[in-house]
């Protein structure tokens, strides 16, 4: 029995250049890693803007909450520490002092808390695509920075309005001087150092919580201690009787950020070069440390 004749076709072998293919779980050298991260900067910014707009639409008041949250927190701290506990004693322009502290501290804490959840929240994306995982915590910092901009504008408006509003509320009270001058021009430098600081903190938080997500709760608890240690609603002078504690508080990076901003905005004083140098050392050091620590664990982030 004979069947149909078999037809044999010649096979063509096509060579494909795999030079551009990347292993999803691979870790490139640090220089290459940073280069790839920089190449994705436009995507990070666009994605951050889209997420901010989406989150705002989910709330009834929308973007207004970006301003209301720090305002309500400041009001609570004012009632508790300014009125009930008389924490305003010895502090000139306590309302302005409180506003600057609360707004700037909440910006950093949001970057820290959201950065600690960036890897667990992006696990499916990590397993599906090859990209520098540091893009996730960096995108979180970018997102929180965009959310902070309306709050920053509100903070500056309040700082300008408080000297006029307080005398109307309490005609017999002490008049608050308004000091607007060239030191205000240095505020962007403080905010830039704070942005660098926040990025380093987000990278470190993302790394330590990648394998143990429960550490996000520990970070939230430690953030409360950090709040009290940053002189947000009281003066560090209250701890003059405890030199060691006072010294620790004054080298705290968030205390430096807030204290320098208060000197510039409220009191028209140029902070010492030592304060600037110490803050710059903290910001740069944490960014370098966070980058190295995060990069070293690059291959582990896709693990279940």
From TrEMBL:
Annotated InterPro entries: ABC2_TM (IPR013525), ABC2_TM_bact-type (IPR047817)
Subcellular location, principal: membrane
UniProt GO molecular function: ABC-type transporter activity
Record domain ABC transmembrane type-2: where: 61-297
Single GO cellular component term: plasma membrane
Subcellular location: Cell inner membrane; Cell membrane
Keywords, ordered alphabetically: Cell inner membrane, Cell membrane, Membrane, Transmembrane, Transmembrane helix, Transport
Family annotation (Pfam families): ABC2_membrane (PF01061)
Superkingdom of this protein's organism: Bacteria
PANTHER family xref list: INNER MEMBRANE TRANSPORT PERMEASE, TRANSPORT PERMEASE PROTEIN
Record-given protein name: Transport permease protein
Originating organism: Serinibacter arcticus
